[in-house]
UniProtKB/TrEMBL annotation:
This is Fe2OG dioxygenase domain-containing protein. Keywords: Iron, Metal-binding, Oxidoreductase. Belongs to the iron/ascorbate-dependent oxidoreductase family. The keyword Iron applies. It comes from Arabidopsis thaliana (Mouse-ear cress). InterPro entries: DIOX_N, IPNS-like_FE2OG_OXY, IPNS-like_sf, Oxoglu/Fe-dep_dioxygenase_dom, Plant_2OG-oxidoreductases.
């Protein structure tokens, strides 16, 4: 059982100031008085794939991120997933939560945790976040007995949610491929068998939001991320040298292009750099569903978009390096550029 602290326990201590390990260096601190022109993050209506394809191409080129509506996932499933996530963090006693503690010595291990990066280096700044990570695909990785047992529909809903997100992710990878003039299956074939993780992130209120980050600046390292959030703002996207707040839209799903799609599309589409900020008054919840290649997959730009600008990489090596060096924006991807 891991003994690392949870942010929730710090908050229970009612400290007037955040512990020093959570204080970001001045250049990484958020400017909470500026939230940019958030309204312009694109929203793509998926009810017609013909018009969606073009809108997705524009959104991927300009933003690496977009909301989708009319996505076919039942809205009550999004709502139930959010409320079950919140219930785990807010209603279960700590003793119960710690029964699901993740293994903090291995990357992205399943369960309840707080530290994203490995190791106990004193110089890493910690995120103001607790999370629960579920392994949901391929089916051989899915073991609901690793997930919370309360409320009684928790395990069933996580399973259904994973199934729906995977279908949507596959459809989007198809439209993204086609938006580049590639066959529908191109990106999915380059990814291979899809590994899916569902991470529920819980950001407790923070006494000094101006000094901390809920989640440090990064791009997701897999292929595509589908994210829902509650009605508390906090997710920000980096675009044109500015941090823009992503407005919460309860029925929409936010799509984030991740690093392997940037490599596969040879940089035609860039992964979205993002972070989460905290606030002093309200806890915030998000559910991110990651779709990744297998650790043994070799990822390289598709031949139709040659000459390649990125070196081929074994996905597992990319992930290990990400976890040991830290994301620091997009430095792991930059290291693959010719
Ligand atoms: C993530 C992530 C953002 C959020 O889990 O990778 O970027 O809003 N989450 O919680
Ligand atoms: Ni992310």
């Amino acid at each position: 059982m891991e003994t690392a602290s949870r942010v929730e326990l710090i908050v229970k201590g009612n400290l007037p100031e955040v512990p020093s390990q959570y204080i970001q260096p001045p250049e990484a601190r958020p400017n909470l008085h500026y939230s940019g022109d958030a309204a312009s993050i694109p929203t793509v209506d998926l009810s017609s794939s013909d018009s969606a394809r073009e809108a997705i191409g524009d959104a991927c080129r300009d933003w690496g991120a977009f909301h989708v509506i009319n996505h076919g996932v039942p809205i009550h499933l999004l709502d139930r997933m959010r409320s079950l996530g919140l219930s785990f963090f807010q209603d279960s006693p700590m003793e119960e939560k710690l029964r699901y503690a993740c293994d903090s010595t291995s990357a992205a291990s399943e369960g309840y945790g707080s530290r994203m990066l490995l190791g106990a280096k004193d110089d890493v700044v910690l995120d103001w976040r607790d999370y629960f990570d579920h392994h949901t695909f391929p089916p051989s990785r899915r073991n609901p007995s690793h997930w919370p047992i309360h409320p009684s529909d928790y395990r069933q809903v996580v399973g259904e949610y994973g199934d729906e997100m995977k279908k949507l992710a596959q459809m989007l990878l198809g439209l993204i491929s086609e938006s580049l003039g590639l066959p529908c299956s191109s990106i999915e074939e380059a990814v291979g068998e899809i590994y899916q993780n569902i991470t529920v992130s819980y950001y407790p209120p923070c006494p000094q939001p101006e000094l901390t980050l809920g989640l440090q600046s990064h791009s997701d390292f897999g292929a595509i991320t589908l994210l829902i959030q509650d009605d508390v703002e906090g997710l920000q996207l980096y675009k044109d040298a500015q941090w823009l707040t992503v407005p919460p839209i309860s029925d929409a799903i936010l799509i984030l292009i991740a690093d392997q799609t940037e490599i596969i599309t040879n940089g035609r589409y860039k992964s979205a750099q993002h972070r989460a900020v905290t606030n002093a008054n309200r806890a915030r919840l998000s559910v991110a569903t990651f779709h990744d290649p297998s650790k043994t997959a070799r990822i390289a730009p598709v031949s139709q978009l040659s000459p390649p600008s990125y070196k081929e990489v074994v996905y597992g090596q990319y992930v290990s390096s990400w976890y040991s060096k830290g994301p620091e924006g997009k430095r792991n991807l930059d290291a693959l550029l010719y």
